[in-house]
Amino acid sequence: MISVEQALDNVRAGFTPIGCETVSIDQALGRVLGENVASRVTQPPKDVSSMDGYAVRAADVATVPVTLTRIGESQAGDGFDGEVGPGQTVRTFTGAPIPAGTDAIVIQEVTEVDGDQILISESSGTGRFIRPAGLDFSYGDILIIEGTVLSARDIGLLAAMNVPWVKVRRRPRVGIIATGDEVVMPGDPLGPDQIVSSNSLALSGYISALGGEPVNLGIAQDTVESLREILAAAKGMDLIMTIGGASVGDYDLVQQVMGEKGLKLDFYKVAMRPGKPMIFGHLGGIPVIGLPGNPVSAGVTCVVFLGVAMDIMLGIDSDDGQKETAVLGRDLGENDQRQDYLRAELTRTEDGALSACPFEIQDSAMMERFARADCLVIRPPHAAPAKAGERVEIIRLSMGRIGF
Length: 404
Prior knowledge:
Number of domains: 4
Strand order of the largest sheet: 7-4-6-5-9-8
CATH class of the largest domain: Alpha Beta
CATH architecture of the largest domain: 3-Layer(aba) Sandwich
Oligomer: single chain
Shape: elongated
Largest sheet: 6 strands, mixed
Mean pLDDT: 91
Low-confidence stretches: none
Strand content: 25-35%
Number of helices: 7
Structural class: alpha/beta
CATH superfamily of the largest domain: MoaB/Mog-like domain
Distance between the termini: 27 Å
Radius of gyration: 31 Å
């Protein structure tokens, strides 16, 4: 049995970034950028007005009131072609090019119109209400860097940069193998000694939330032949994940069958609770993570390990679950040699501090509690008793890319 820290180090060493593909930007939301992207345009491409009003020579409106003669107008996408001389002005709308010869905008609220005669009652200094060319960005500027998880704002920026296609990391294909005679898929006939396979669907959700492509390979029965048959379908995966069957009982066949096929086992059993009977290794060069069968154990091991693995494959700087601290909501006893991940609810104290209160019952089969939890409270091995109000480390379950 190895420590969580050692297991994390081994998992990090067992993964490498995967390849890229090119997609249209309208399909790039949530994808991970595979290369730096430079702008193909300057924005704005020329000096433009930031307000509706009149383009003027600042010198002509230095003393007000003053009346200028309107000689045309400038609209966004249809600028004024001439040049403005002394005593002249051009009606100019927001986003419209600044006419040649002018260097300021007078807003329409301080003007009175009488035909082509424009009475201006407030002066405007040089550059007033003008957005200069390149104010936002210029041609060739690198604006979004490799490893960025593209947000809706990033998509808008890419469009403004006149970038229609981007290179993104391919979604890691993760093969999911549930095991056990006792599990059936939701909606299937349920025998008297069977349970619904919630883990495989939850795992699909975890994988999707982390930017992967889940591939449900089915449920392997508790026979060597069944597991061999399903493993044969796992070729071409970037990661194989099994659920259950990773222990050493008579019907826990994952290690046995994978061992026959050349599994190079890195570790089996991690000093954590829940999640101890976890395996990690490589089968034919494909990483393999074997999750415990209990639903909360499977979920917690995904929070701790799967995010790290997916981040590496996607070329993202891993944050190890976005740890932070909170004050403890109730007293806790001393811990043993395993690192605890206690399901807890988050609230705010009267002074606004974040408070994490672990559930009293922490059974690893209680999926309802896991679904209701806001975070995991981390209790290091051999931790001394802790009192309510002390600071503890937590991992949120609804932040960032994890969103479990």
